Each structure stands twice: as structure tokens, then as C-alpha cells.
Amino acid sequence: MEVSLWQKCLVRLEHDLPEQQFNTWIRPLHAVETTDSLRLLAPNQFVLDWVRKHHFDTISRTLHDLGPDAVTEVQLDIGSSNRAAEPLQATAASVAPRASSAEQPAPVKYKSNLNPDFTFDSFVGGKSNQLARAASMQVGENPGGAYNPLFIYGGVGLGKTHLMHAVGNLILERNPAARVIYLHSERFVADMVKGLQHNAINEFKRFYRTVDALLIDDIQFFAGKERSQEEFFHTFNALLEGQQQVILTCDRYPKEVQGLEERLKSRFGWGLTAAIEPAELETRVAILMNKASQNNIELPDDVAFFIAKRIQSNIRELEGALRRVMASARFTGSPITLEFTKEALRDLLALQDKLVTIDNIQKVVAEYYKIRVADLLSPRRSRTITRPRQVAMALAKELTTHSLPEIGDAFGGRDHTTVLHACRKVVELKESDARINEDYSNLLRTLTT
Amino acid sequence: MKHPQLPLGLALKDSARFESFFTGRNQEAVQSLQSAAAGRGETLIYIAGPAGTGKTHLLQAACHLAAEHHRTTGYLPLQELLNLSVEILQGLEQVDLVCLDDAQALAGQGNWERGLFDLFNRLRDSGSTLLVAAAQRPDLAGFELPDLVSRLGWGVTYALKPLADDEVLAALLYRARGRGLELPEETASFLLKRIPRDLPSVFNLLDRLDEASMIEQRRLTIPFVKSVLDQEA
Lengths: 449, 233
Fold this sequence. Notes:
The complex is a heterodimer of chains A (449) and B (233).
Chain A: H1 5-16, H2 19-26, E1 30-33, E2 37-42, H3 45-54, H4 56-66, E3 73-78, H5 130-141, E4 150-153, H6 160-174, E5 180-184, H7 185-197, H8 201-209, E6 213-217, H9 226-241, E7 245-250, H10 262-268, E8 272-275, H11 281-294, H12 301-310, H13 315-332, H14 338-344, H15 346-355, H16 358-369, H17 373-377, H18 383-399, H19 404-410, H20 416-432, H21 434-448
Helix pairs in contact in A: 1-2, 1-4, 5-6, 7-8, 11-12, 11-13, 16-18, 18-20, 19-20, 20-21
Chain B: H1 27-37, E1 44-48, H2 55-68, E2 73-77, H3 78-81, E3 97-101, H4 110-126, E4 129-134, H5 146-152, E5 156-159, H6 165-178, H7 185-192, H8 199-216, H9 222-232
Parallel strand pairs in B: 1-4, 1-5, 2-3, 3-4
Helix pairs in contact in B: 1-2, 4-5, 6-7, 6-8
């Protein structure tokens, strides 16, 4: 098979650009090549703008170097190779009318609920949250602009709420008069119910429609609450219409939230959708260091690495562990050394050592892929079995201290080279196949929580 | 506006004080709870431990101490409240110190888990202190809502250590002395070889012995306590 011009270009760019830049901005692009043109599809407006501003020249130059006559035109669009780009503009068919100034009653009191500690400065960036962080900053600097709504999604405890507050704080910093409201989705529901009960639903509507930025956390909890969704739908439309910023967080991709109306799901995707992935080791270490220094404590490297390696599930639990270590150090007056930390966290970590055995990995992986453990150990080589088996082997290598031959033995007496191959394959698949990448992260989290 | 007290008939045991708690190897947890109760330390502490490790005593002691610092308190034994509506969690964010006992009782109860999750968020907004006690650590207590588990794990978690045999003995002597009872050590050792050695059982027996010794005007000798035990059996 002939290697396409774009693939050659990718190889060159991967070499030329820093890895993080390449992975964040260039890798997500899908190429549609014809004989004389190349259309690059960015997953959203933000990536598109960023690539246009920072990388477009490099891409054009590289393409020209590789095949001076091959491509006459390079075009950047939003979309994916499977579907045409969807229009970004909203059809405001069912937009509820904004409250007119005539019916404006006494001024409503605004309480932003923003936590002043959650800023961009205190947010530790890394590969896992680079896009979400950059997008959030853009929104903070230019609320109500192109990225509306901003939809941040990711598992529990990865920093969605922090980012959301950071945007709100930045908006306020730049415009102290801005009315920024942060609330949890349950509070929105409770307020609405209260409005209905007290015949004050119009006040409810007016309140939420006259803010400059509405930040709603964990919108997955709207699931199954039809009346709240209806109300939110209208509020949402009114805000977008008025170029007021909406920021939402969710524990999963909008389309995957069960019990949420289709029209809401589709609207959530109109602006910019950014994922936060579980933080990688280096970021977890940086988070610990940052948190410790906020508490005026100098955390030795080996201690930070020890905690970060042991607690991979989410940032809240990482912080919980650090809090415990700091509390113990205060109590005993001891310096925070590795030995001290191990002792302080003994009750917290005991389980993790116990959980992560090859047996348990096999059990969890089999359950996840809905196959039997026996299949993982069997000689069967169909794709439906092979992939989970490779994933399980890679997890065993990452999470246990067993040798490769031991891992091979535990998987039906396979050779250690099979294990090695599986580990390499999984690394490769994680880069190229988003689903495998997600499976792997989910499993890692399950096994280490 | 602060609620002076919860509209729930949940009286605290007057005797559940930090001074009457036998700390054993739990000094750090106890001190941390004391600071939190006074409004000086952590804002979220989760204590985990099997029955009889003193969780209820500690939470109630925290409420008493908080009250001495003019803080409003709410103590909720969730096991007993499960048959009520989850709405009893409403408004708790206006209380300075919220203590949730037997939190594992909510595990698997969808609307209660959601209610607790929601309460947690409101408490963070209001800056109140939350103390939670459960049989197991957050990730092991059986909660199904991952959002709740991660939030409960955000604070400082202590696993309460059960008292060793010699500590149970010391706790028994300490409690007896606190009540003005003369309990010879050999009698205490004798008792502990014959009854369940969790502190609630031990202290309950002490209450009964106290009563029996008053009625019969006898001292707590081995023959006497043996006769009380035999009668109960």
C-alpha cells in the first residue's frame, strides 16, 4: 500500500515538533486527500483555530518539501473523516424570549459561588488536560465568543470543577462587574422545583437568563429529570442567543449520557467539547508538589513519586492522601520522608497492594469485555479474545512487579515474548485507537481505585 | 441565618466527650477531630473502623466540643434515619459542623447517595465542617456513586485502630475510675476473659455491675461479678 502524503508529513512533524504539541494538535487531525488537494479536519473549532495560528505554516511547508507538486491546496475544516462538518450555528427555533426590561423587578442578588482558590495558576497542566486547559483559558479571556458552550468532560476527580471555577475567576478578574454564577446541576434542579412550588418560576427564569456566564457542574445529574431539562434547554438557548457564556461539565461525552434529551445532547456539542483524561504520573507528581507548596511544605521527590504511583484513580484521592501525610507530619512533628509517608498511608494503601494481582486483573478485564477468564487463558486467537488478553497482559506488566515469564505463565503458559509483544501492541493501539485508550484508562482506574 | 439546632430528635449522649474517650493508638485521629470540631483544622475527616472502635462516641464528642466553641452542630445516625425521607439532609449546609454516623448504611441506596453527594457539594460551598464515620474506607464502603466516593476520599481519612487487649483493660479501668467505681484490676481481667471485648459490650456490663453493686451493696470482687454474670446467663 502506498503511504499517503499526509502520513509522510505526520512522520516528519512528529520528529520536528515536541511530542506534547504533536499529540495534542496534529494527531487529532483527520486528512481527506484527493489527487491535488488535502483537507484537514479538526475535531472542533478550538483545535482548528490553534492549528491555523500555530502550525499551519509548518504543515504547508512540510507538505511542500515532501511533494512540491502533489498538493496545490491545503484546507482546514471542522469535522471527522466519517462525516461532513456539522454547522456550528444554532437554529434558535425554540428560544424562549428574554425577559424584557419592562418586567425587570428589583435587582436580583448574585452570588457567584466561585472558589477563589481554583485558578489557572493553581491548576497543574499536563498532557491529560492540555486541550481542556487551553480552551478554558480562551473562554475566560473571551467569554460568549466562539466557544459557547464550553463542555468539559472526564471521569470523577480529574479537575473539571477546578477548570470551570478558573474560567469563572478569570472572567471576573477581567471584568469585576460580570455576573458569573457557578452551581451544581442538583442546585439548578432544586431551585427550579422551589420556583415551581412558590409560583416563582418566572423569577427563576429571569435570574438564570440575565447572568453573563452560567457554569453548571455535573450535568449528568439532569438525566431523567425532564422538567429540569426542559427549563435548562430554554435557559441554555436564551444564553447562547444573548452571547452569554455557558460552561458545563459532565462525567462523560454528551452523546453518551443516558436519559438526556437528544436536543440537549446535540446543543452541548455546538461549542467546544474538551476531555480531561486521567493525569499521567508526572502530572500527578506535579499536582502533589503544587498542593504541598500551597501549604508551605516541601515535598521530597521520592515521596511525591511514591504517592503518585500508588494513587492513580483521581486527583481528589491523591490530595486526600497528601492531606493525611501532612496531617500526620503536623501531629508527630516529623519531617516527611519516604518511610514516614509509607507508615502514614499504610491503611490507605493496604488495599491497593492486595487488589492488583494478575488474577484480579484477569477477572476485571474479563468482566469489562464480557468474556470469561478461561477465554483469556485459552489458546483462542480470535480478535474478541486477543485484544482483551493483550490489554490484561499490559496491565499486569504495569501494575504488578511480576516478571514477563511469570505473566506469560499466568496467561495459560504463554511465552514471555508474547507478553512483550502484547505490551508493545497495547502502547501502539492506545495511540491510534481512542476506544482502546479509553478501555485501558477505565481498567487502570478500576484496578487502582 | 444559622439554625440553632436540627429539628430532629437526635439527642447526644452527654457522656460522649473527648475526655471520656480512651484514645489508645488513635491519638492522631482524635486530635484531628478535636481541631476540626473547634473549627480550626480540616473541613472533612472520614473515620473508618469496625463496630466498637468508638466512632459514634467520637462524632458525638465532636458535637459537644463544637457547641462549646459556639458552633452549631448536627449529628445524624444514618442507619436510624434511612426510613425517613432523604430531604432531612436539606438545609444542613447552614450548620457549622455536620456529623454523619454509619455512612455505610447509605451504600447502594441511590437517592441517599445522591442526597449525600449533593449535601457534600453544598457543605463545601458553605464552608462547614463534615465528619463522616463508616465501617469501611470510602472506596470500600460499598457506595455506588463514584462522584461520592471520590469526594469522601478528598479529606483526611483515618482507620480507627481497635484497642489491643491491654488497652481494653486500661479503658475499662479508666471508665470505672471516671464513674467513681472501685474496680480491682484482677476483677477487670477476669471480666475480659468472659465477655465480648468490644468497648460497647464492656461498658454496658460495667453499667450493670455498677447498678448491681449499689443494690446489693457489694464491692466488685471476682465472686460478685461472677455471680452477676451467672445470673445474666
